[in-house]
Design a protein that fits this description.
This protein is of the alpha/beta class. About 30% of the residues lie in helices and about 25% in strands. The chain has three domains: about 1-30 and about 120-150 and about 175-210, 2-Layer Sandwich (Nucleotidyltransferase, domain 5), CATH 3.30.420; about 35-115, Rossmann fold (3-Layer(aba) Sandwich); about 220-320, 2-Layer Sandwich (Nucleotidyltransferase, domain 5). Strand 15 (about 300-305), helix 11 (about 310-315) and strand 16 (about 320) form a beta-alpha-beta unit. Pfam families: DUF1786.
Length: about 350
């Protein structure tokens, strides 16, 4: 069984080519800049009007880069799907000066750029350039997707769907989708379409980056020895933690990393473990929210990953940096591979 796992984060996209006939540690691993970073760099190097095709993707720095491009006097035109990278409501995209493409106009003198989180064809060319086999039985991809509901803000909607999924304790792997991605997860649906449009017949497994990471942390050597612990991903933008007992998530909370201090983080994690954290206290602190089913017996250890994980080192908690498969950068990809096991792949 050969699996291509891709975890698209804010800073990097982490890629693992897994072969179950080899040790996990001997998998091919690639760490590249996130797509929004190299697309933003591409925009900065172009002195011309721009026309965007492609798909919805993680926006990151793209909005700011396009605004800077327009300030130079250039036009920016986007087709409807890629325009939703900026905002889901196209009227809000137009409000910042971006034109939505019209079938009645020609844009032949514009420089064209295709948006998308995934370009497997480009990746295949890279691997084949090193005489590496590019043939897979399964593909698993993680992106962060807040979901979209025109009647509800991102923070509220994201946690409403978490609460629906976590109506009872479940394994982190169960947050994955295989052929059943809901339409409201617009970024995951875009990834599905991208894979299909590249002529790939494999239906990919899709997962939110945070739950891919939490899943991967559970397969760290230290974590596998624990019964009651907290897994936390401290990312560039968001921090997501799950209290876990008997291999199942008992509660979660999510906040903006920039809003956390070592003291507040420690307090939140203790309250999460005790089962007394509330959605209101996190939301009113400008975080995303919290949802708890049960307290856990104790915090045997905090398993941590993410580029801002040094924040946990300033707390009084007993912590361990997750390193599944011997690589801190592959936590999400290991989680994706383990999630495929839930589908008996």
């Amino acid at each position: 069984m050969r699996i291509l796992a891709i975890d698209v984060g804010t800073g990097t996209q982490d890629i693992m080519v897994y072969d179950d006939e080899k040790e996990l540690e001997n998998s091919i691993k690639i760490v590249l800049p996130s797509p929004h970073l190299y697309i933003s760099q591409q925009v900065r190097e172009i002195e011309n009007d721009l026309y965007f095709t492609g798909e919805i993707m993680g926006g990151g720095k793209i909005k700011k880069t396009l605004q800077e491009h327009m300030e130079k006097g250039y036009k920016v035109v986007m087709e409807e799907l890629p325009a939703k990278t900026i905002r889901d409501k196209l009227s809000q995209v137009e409000a910042i000066g971006i034109e939505i493409a019209s079938l009645d106009k020609e844009y032949k003198d514009f420089t064209k750029i295709a948006l998308g989180d995934i370009n497997i064809t480009k990746l295949s060319e890279f691997l084949l350039g090193y005489d590496l086999e590019f043939d897979f039985d399964e593909i698993a991809i993680a992106v962060q997707d807040h979901g979209y509901n025109e009647n509800m803000g991102d923070r509220d909607f994201r946690f409403e769907k978490f609460r629906e999924k976590l109506s009872e304790p479940i394994k982190p792997e169960e947050f994955a989708f295989k052929g059943n991605v809901p339409d409201y997860y617009t970024r995951m649906k875009a990834v599905e379409r991208s894979v299909e449009n590249e002529g790939i017949e494999i239906k990919p497994l899709l997962m939110d980056t945070k739950f891919a990471s939490i899943t991967g942390m559970c397969y760290d050597d230290d974590a596998e020895k624990l019964n009651s612990f907290i897994a936390i991903d401290i990312g560039n933008g968001h921090t997501t933690a799950a209290s876990i007992e008997n291999g199942k998530i008992q509660g979660i909370f999510e906040h903006h990393t920039s809003s956390l201090t070592p003291e507040s983080l420690e307090n939140y994690l203790k309250r999460l473990a005790e089962g007394i954290i509330t959605n209101e206290e996190v939301y009113n602190d400008h975080g995303h929210g919290a949802h708890v089913i049960n307290p856990i017996s104790k915090i045997e250890k905090v398993i941590v990953t993410g580029p801002k994980r040094e924040l946990i080192e300033k707390t009084n908690l007993d912590w361990h940096h997750a390193c599944p498969g011997g690589d801190v950068m592959m936590t999400g990809t290991v989680g994706l591979i383990k999630a495929l096991g839930e589908y008996n792949v």
